[in-house]
Structure prediction request, 610 residues.
Amino acid sequence: MTSAPRPDGDLPDAPADRTLPQLLARNARAYPQLPALSWQSKDSDGGWRTFGWAEIHQQTRNLAAGYRALGVGRGDRVLLMMADRPEHWLSDLALVRLGAVPVSVYGTAAPEQITHIARNCRARLAVVEGAAQVAVWEPLLTDADTPLERLVVAEADAEGSHFPYAALLREPAPEQFADELDAARPEDPLTVVYTSGTSGEPKGVVLTHRQVMSNALALDAVVELPPHVEHICYLPFAHIAERMLGIYLPCHRASHVYLCADPAGVAAVVRMVRPAQFFGVPRIWEKLSAGVRGVLSLMPAEQREVIDRAFDVAREHVGHRERGETPPAELEERYTRVREDVLLPMLAAGGLDRVTWSASASAPMSVDVVHFWAGFGIVIMDAWGLTETAGVATSNSPRTGFRLGSVGRPVDSVEVRVAEDGEILVRGSSVFSGYLRPDGSVASALDADGWLATGDIGRMDEDGYLWLTDRKKEMIITSTGKNVSPALVENALKEHPLIGQAMVHGDNHSYLVALLVLDAEAAPAWAAANGVEATGGPAGLAEHPAVRAEVDRAVAAANARLNRSEQVKRYELLAEEWGPATGELTPSLKMRRRVIRDKYADSLTGLYQD
Prediction:
């Protein structure tokens, strides 16, 4: 189903020239009562509150007046460090209406990263969540090299000597204030998004209204969604994917946003909303599949046989669609039957029975995970892009075609080509302006012909589908001169449900070794299904001989599918999952290889000792 026509009123004729304030005004005028933003109340009843588009327009106007009274003006950058809560979402739009530039910061950012961002963007104001964030930001107020002057604190009774967020709304906006609002031009900066920093310091990516709108239009051309579709926000707004999916596209589509401030609670929100669209970075889909596999492993054999047969039918149906074929009538009938009788009831238990568009991006997706969800009839439309491309540059599509394992074809707003050394190059209307310098100027990263060297390695097939290999700087070069993609090897290792995370290592060595992390959800289920009793929690399971033997078999199975230079000769099995809080992953759940190598340097060295 495609989106219903939307009245554009007096919006510019060129869709890419529309600005975010113009879209907000259009939505308030055309859909005043339509739900726009919902969030769970902090009150004792814990119920959900909802604003319609007219309320959004009024709230952001009042907030903009409050920020203006604090001295925020056109072109000023304002830092935001909050979870996915209404204060963040509404402030983002209010600042844009004022002509300021919101800059979201990951809640898990280290103090040195926060300092770097504050100095680089030269913001004088930061809006933070509560006491924990105040403690991190407060020292910057007296730092001679940082221009930060004031903190606004969202949580009531946590502001101390700082400005309370609620005070922004105490006074109604004066009538003459309207003259200062909604004057953004398409070429003006809409936001600055700092890269999550897998290596080195974060860089500030400057994105304009036109670049973001170009990407929004290109995405609309490859997805099929109901009108005013709902979206669940649970990734940080500092992530380009959530900024697009959770802020900009909802304004473009006049859709309904549900805020999930705690990502650990997203499963409950999905069950409540039953969304038509769901986006997850690869690690999210891996964890979901591990959980479902754990449940399946505990089912009686006869029930599992019924489910496996349904999976086979769904995968056969997906295969025809992947090849661009109409499934035969007999297969269509079988698929309809197993979908109604077997698959939809299972999906409904998790709130995914209404999903018509499921997607992933950010890192190479394991083909095993993609094929697992295809068994439910869910095709994860893997996409690829960068913060620098305003999000998606290539995408699989239910409308224009898909290839499982690829990241799809280029969207309309970009051109993509592969250089002789395999590096992917991109240019187009949604490619960024450049990186922010401390003096406010923008340093372009494009070559003379407008191409951006992305740092990713891949290939383009004869049908125009892009296949990712790895990050250029993360390619392993062994002592024998072989180039190895670590992501390819790691995804092969993670095909076994016991292995939740993997990092391979081997630069300047004659063979590869690996650090493997036991999957926290799948391991207990596997142990129960196989009669394994272990004390001591995850650590006890990681040391159990039966678990070690199974992981040995998993590594051997992965090696059997890899060439000799890609095979893992030795590994260490770890029990504690890597995450952003402990530093091994970025806030967008990508591996920080340098951090992991440093943290486990002794273990990696030991794996090369006889």
Summary: The chain has 18 helices and 27 strands. Residues 301-322 form the longest helix (22 residues).
